[in-house]
Amino acid sequence: MRRLLLGLAACAAGLGSPARGVVIQTASGTGNTSAPADDPGWTNMGVRGVGTGVYLGDGWVLTASHVGPGDIELSGTTYPAVPGSTVQLTNAGEAGKTSLTDLILYRLSTSPAGMAGVTLAAAAPAAATPVTMIGSGRDRGAFTEWSVNQATTPWTWTVVSSGGDFAGYQTLGTRAMRWGTNAVDGAVVWIAESDLAPPLDVRCLATVFDGAPGSTEAQAVYGDSGGGVFVTNGSGWDLAGLILDVRGWSGQPDPGATPVFGKVTFAADLAFYRPQILAVVPEPALPFAPLVAAAILAGRWRIRLRAR
Predict the structure, then answer these.
(1) Which of 29, 35, 152, 216 suits 286 as a labelling partner, its CA being 20 to 30 A distant?
(2) What residues form DSSP beta bridges with 198?
């Protein structure tokens, strides 16, 4: 399991420079760098330092705790964060899970003028539900095949020119906000992000990178943490997930930098965390934020800043 941070040391870690944009399975892998015709919330997606964030409305941003609060770039304009405004969400007392989870809200000092908020999904989307993913991870690089020795533990991967056991892509160091599509795979699951300090549990949706040729199918890579997963509700779009993590194959070299077919993207199930979010941030249809609830939350939840 690798969380989707980008902006790690380029050459030392073999990751390239900071990057944006879910990897997509079109012929060239480029494109999808402006809002789709049926726009789920393109302008609400911003570059948050080494990752991505979603502008929810009323001056509030949602992102991954491991990305952390701070300035966010929305539609080419940078908006500073209000120091000390961070609220870290919890797992609502779920038995056997960590108290805190890998999601934070924080407030901007200035709200983007004229930018509408988003609507949160009230229920987790069912299996096979189509989704649109928007994130700020690496651009796609060269198609690559690997010969994999599955008799070793972990598996041993060797790049080959053809006839490999597994295939996928390298990634580049260039950046461009990008959208792609996929579908929910199975029921919601709990994942343990054991590489965080301390480890954190998150209730998640999952998508699989099947590699359908020529499609806009998407896979998260470095930098997509905090990206949005949107579903249609019949009359518009709901924000159903927040991209957090990927799972690679055994021994796979740098899963966050090599989107291999069969990999899984995990996104927080925002329907589960929705009551906590709405206690702080109003949805677009609500006239104002419940300030009393926000004051209670500010005293009840531990504020946790995470610099990356």
Answers:
(1) 35
(2) none
Instruction: Check residue 173 and give its pLDDT.
Output: 87
Q: How many residues does the chain have?
A: 308
Tokens of 151: 């008799």
Question: Is 253 among the domain residues?
Answer: yes
Q: How far is CA 143 from the centre of its chain?
A: 23
The tokens of 232 are what?
A: 């249609």
Task: Report mean pLDDT in 10-residue bins for the chain, 308 residues.
Answer: 34 29 87 94 96 97 98 97 98 98 98 95 97 95 97 98 96 89 96 94 97 87 96 95 95 93 96 97 58 39 30
Other Cβ atoms within 10 Å of 302 Cβ, number: 10
235 assigned to some structural domain: yes
- Pairing relation of β-strands 228-232 and 237-247? antiparallel
Give the Cα-Cα-Cα angle 255, 260, 48 (nearest 5 degrees). Answer: 50
pLDDT on residue 2: 38
Number of Cβ within 10 Å of residue 53's Cβ equals: 32
Give me the residues paired with residue 42 across strands.
Answer: none
pTM of the predicted structure, to 2 decimals: 0.86
Q: What is the pLDDT of residue 10?
A: 27
307 domain-assigned: no
Q: Domain range for residue 222?
A: 2-300
- Asked whether residue 242 is assigned to any structural domain, the reply reads yes
Q: What share of the chain is helix, strand, coil (3-state, %, to 5)?
A: 10, 35, 55
Q: Where are the beta strands (DSSP E) in the chain?
A: 2-3, 23-24, 45-48, 51-57, 60-64, 72-74, 77-79, 87-90, 100-107, 130-135, 140-149, 156-160, 166-171, 178-183, 189-193, 200-208, 218-219, 228-232, 237-247, 264-269
Number of domains the chain is built from: 1
For residue 150 the two structure tokens come to 């599955």
